[in-house]
Amino acid sequence: MGDHDDLRKFITELAVVHGRVVLSSGREADWYVDLRRVTLHHAAAPLVGSVLLDLTADWQFDAVGGLTLGADPVALSMLHAASARQRRLDAFVVRKTGKAHGLQRRVEGPDVKGRRVLAVEDTSTTGSSVLTAVEALQEAGAEVVGVAVIVDRGAGEAVRAAGLPYRAAYSLADLGLVA
Q1: How far apart, in whole angstroms, are the C-alpha atoms of residue 75 and residue 153?
Q2: How many Cα atoms within 13 Å fall on the side-chain side of residue 157?
Q3: Could you tell me if 34 and 152 are in contact, meaning their C-beta atoms sit under 8 angstroms apart?
Q4: How far apart (Å, rounded) are the C-alpha atoms in residues 2 and 8?
Q5: Which DSSP string do the residues of 103-115 spell out, in sequence order?
Q6: What keywords is this UniProt entry annotated with (predicted)?
Q7: Binding site: which residues?
Q8: Cα dist from 179 to 7, 12, 77, 81, 175, whole Å
Q9: What is the reported pLDDT for 130?
Q10: Bridge pairing between strands 28-33 and 16-22
């Protein structure tokens, strides 16, 4: 099995939780995909980076990140996977709100001004979190080349409507789930 198949197995075995839940979008579902169980797992996290680098191999970017907390381990996995491939890739973190002290930055890490960046998220239903990150990145002077997620729960339409390319490593159907 390759990285893509191996990661899918980790997701279905570790991250899919059955039971009634309320999503961050406010919608209710009979199951939840808790990707932090995968993105923070010792064996699965390296696969996240590899799979998302492969997914976006034809996009040119030199930094990756998104809205904290869901995007943080995704970006770090990609940073480490890129390093293993001898590719330079920085990571950044987008705060939900700006800091009131210190440098008062909303985008933390290496400066993104004038750089081509990829916005990531672990999973997205409405696209609101990743689009919040995109807005902050654009305000910081970055050129957002696209959005990539591990699992798409339906955000593609909203992201594309905002004028951005969108890719997901897995759909709900890929995981044997229905919306």
Answers
A1: 19
A2: 4
A3: no
A4: 10
A5: T--SEESS--TT-
A6: Glycosyltransferase, Magnesium, Pyrimidine biosynthesis, Transferase
A7: 95-96, 99, 101, 121-129, 153
A8: 21, 15, 27, 31, 11
A9: 96
A10: antiparallel
Segments in 40-172 forming alpha helices (H): 45-55, 72-84, 128-139, 156-161
| β 90-94/16-22 pair status | unpaired
DSSP code of residue 72: H
Provide the pairing of β-strand 116-124 with 63-67: parallel
Binding positions for 5-phospho-alpha-D-ribose 1-diphosphate: 95-96, 99, 101, 121-129
Six-digit token string for 38: 């995968």
Where is the binding site for orotate, in residues?
A: 125, 153
Nearest to 127 by CA among 162, 93, 94: 162
pTM exceeding 0.85: yes
